[in-house]
Known about the structure:
Elements: E1 4-8, E2 14-19, H1 20-26, E3 29-38, E4 43-49, E5 60-61, E6 64-67, H2 74-86, E7 96-102, E8 105-107, E9 112-124, E10 139-146, H3 147-150, H4 155-158, H5 168-180
Parallel strand pairs: 3-9
Antiparallel strand pairs: 1-2, 3-4, 3-6, 4-5, 4-10, 7-9, 8-9
Amino acid sequence: MKGMLxxxxxxxxxxxxxxxxxxxxxxxxxxxxxxxxYTPDGKIIWxxxxxxxxxxxxxxxxxxxxxxxxxxxxxxxxxxxxxxETGVDISQEDLIFLRTTITKSYDEATGTTNHPRRNVYAxxxxxxxxxxxxxxxxxxxxEAWPIEALMNLSPEESRRFIPSLIDENGMETIEQIRNLI
Length: 181
């Protein structure tokens, strides 16, 4: 069932399947995993999405993120996506579970809606941002932002991020990461 994803209810129970395209076209609830890399000196590393992504192109996103494929767990997805999107091998034991969120974001640029039930994890990255590998076609690179700067973004800076990552839920995640340091 390549290209198919589980459709969920708000409790995380599988209620059907649909193609990735239909998931976003119809705004169906589905499973995603995010990993937010943070540094020991208080920065969060963001991934700059490719200009041709099907949702939220050319915006800053969590360091790692992806759909949970049928048969995979959130943790398996987080570790697999970290390897694919950054070149970093993370064991599932190194993931720090932060929270489960349900968001719904309409992307005016593409006319699609992302409606994930997302498990969000943190990972303390002790390497150099230059050593992170860019996934061709998915990313343009990475940016490290001090947590304190993220707490006081200007309107112009805010427009660089996927909105759901810096709304109230996103700020709570940033605060959780600040408390880990």
